[in-house]
Design a protein that fits this description.
The complex is a heterodimer of chains A (564) and B (201). Chain A has nine helices and 31 strands. By secondary structure, chain A is an alpha+beta fold. The chains are: A alpha+beta (564), B mainly beta (201).
Amino acid sequence: MTWRLYRVMWLLLLFIPGKTWADVEAHAHAYGLVIGASRGGEGQALLRYAAADAAHVAEVLTQLGRTPREHVTQLVDPSPAAVLSALSRISAQLAGHARAGQTSQLFFYYSGHARANALSLGGAELSLEALRNALLALPSTLTVVVLDACQSGAFSGVKGASPAADFSSSSFAQLSQAGVAVMASSTAEELSQESQDIGGSYFTHHLLTGLRGAADRDADGSVSLDEAYAYAYERTLSDTLRTRLGSQHATLETTLKGHGKVPLTYIRDADAKLRFSTNLVGRVVVQRQGRGAVVAELNKAEGSVLVLALPHGPYEVLLRPFPTLSPRVCAVSLEQASVQDIDPRACPIVLSSEALAAKGFGEVHEDWFIELEAQRRFVSADAYTRTLSEFRFVDRGAFTLAGDRGNFSPAISVGKGLSPHISVLIRLQRLAHRKFERRVAQARDHDDLTVFSWDSWGVMPAVRAGYPQWQGRFVPFAEVGAGLGVAWSNYRTGIDIETSENHVGFMARAALGANLDVAWGIGVQLNVGYDYAAPLQNEVGERRNDGGPNVGMAVRYRLLKGQQ
Amino acid sequence: MSSRARLLHILGALAIASCATGGDTGVDNWSFDSWCTGVPCGWTKDAGSVLPVPTWHKKDLGVSFVDQGTQLSQAIAPSIHRCLLFDVIAEVDPAAQLTLQLDFNDDGVVDVDYQIVAAHWRSVAPLFSVPLDYLGVRVRVVKKGAGKAVLAQLRVVPTDECQSEPSLLKQGSTCLFGAACESGVCAEARCSPHPPAIVGK
């Protein structure tokens, strides 16, 4: 995952006294200026998703924001002069509406770099003061300003690594007016993050999903400013809790005059809709068919109907309904002016990460897993045991963990899938428990029994390469690992001499096996392998290999990791 | 010792031998695990110096013959079996010339001299037949040369599973019958190279 640092995402609402929101909603002539600037200044890394974020915002404006397409201006990597020029042209149009007594609104969106008091546009800067003055001078009734900006670009792509309050607080201060609402993607102390998995910033991604209907809590067919903020806040915080840079709390400050809600999008205007029933609970990802863009990604709660507004066309809907977590994919063709209900029971289960990847859902594969295994080891003699035999020790055999005679040993593995084909794991296994005895005549009237025993274990990291078959239900694999073998030996004579020692040695393993999914993430595994584990060494320099050939059968449980 | 006394000694030993069982009458402390004031318990240090040293395990001790000429010995009671199997585990440099000597009847005369050739703690198992006049044996281990010589185990197992003829006693060994002697002559209870002189009147 790459990320960049966002200092602030701004949502400014400039309200001109004398007008109510209701008036604006009914009569607004809407315009949009959407800017994506990938190139910042010196020392600022090239942004990966700024232009894409801007394009997605333009799409939502035209589809659901009642903004005519010809009224939306998109700029990619513009100069400061180009930005001001675009504002000037829009200002002329807004002035025309004002002269005609008509209400109007502008949605201004910027995604790119920024420093403390300016936007970074290539090698030039547009000061916040200049931007503010230009925005305040607009003769619009309502102006919505969203700034998704980075303060600096670090080597890793993290921007503004020091969470200074410079940009956000200075911008707020500079743009603060009566009736100003500011929505920031993070607090002044936090960093804002971008995700490679979702192809954009967390906050923008969830804001747009919310604007498409996921945030319409009162189901009135529109998404208001408060609803969009609450949804984006919750989802952003949830996703960033586990990231390296830590949690991200969006902020909203408003001083709005008027009554009622401030609608941002109108779901009822949608070209087509997807509808998810009250009973569906789980994760939902909606993507254009094939390897198209993700248009919505959310967690569907139980007890409410969810409607997503989308343009008509073919989509694929990936569902991970709780509690099974088995992914299902529905191919949906949204007709114009239609509402399509999604029934997870009618969607086929897809377990193959390759199949899911081919459908454009990225690397869906095994995530964390745990395996409990019983191994049968085939014990053989070696120089170590032959020396024991030379010294007249009699082999009393192998013992299980329960203390019974037998060659079965347990093993436990915990691992994580890195890709559909590669997993890494940590394996702990019991190798052997052996006992040898010797009777020694210390005097003609009594014998002493000398007992030598040891208990050996192995622990090691391993890599497993699999080749999923049958939609991922059956996965043959090869596994190699290397780690440590540990043994505890005990030498006890009849004259109460008892010596315990710890031994450590090298261990390696190679195995072939296969996993078979049964249901609910539970499956079985069969494997054959060879271990080399020789922690035990005698005074002669001979090592005991407690590994050797083995077969194992395991019960396993796994989670699936999908496209985030 | 006078010949009369020697004869009584032999008869007494025979009496003991006649009561001997057919069981294992091997050496005590054959694994050298027990030590008594610097000497393996049950053994006699006849010369030189010995030390306990680890063998395959630090607590499974063997006896190291330190000096050239070091000797350890132990007397073993007689048995009714015809042969003695020696089960020896040692780590010996060839130059050390660690030798197993058998003094049948413990009369001070070495009747068998066998060099132990063993390395890497692998056992050797020489088999020796006892003489006709078998009254016991003193087992002696001698380091004749210089170099490493460590004895981990020395067991003696009486057995009848041997094909060889009875050993013949060397000159000077205690005897009852001439057939037991290498010379074929047992004079005054000793193996002698020639019969005793007959003194006429």
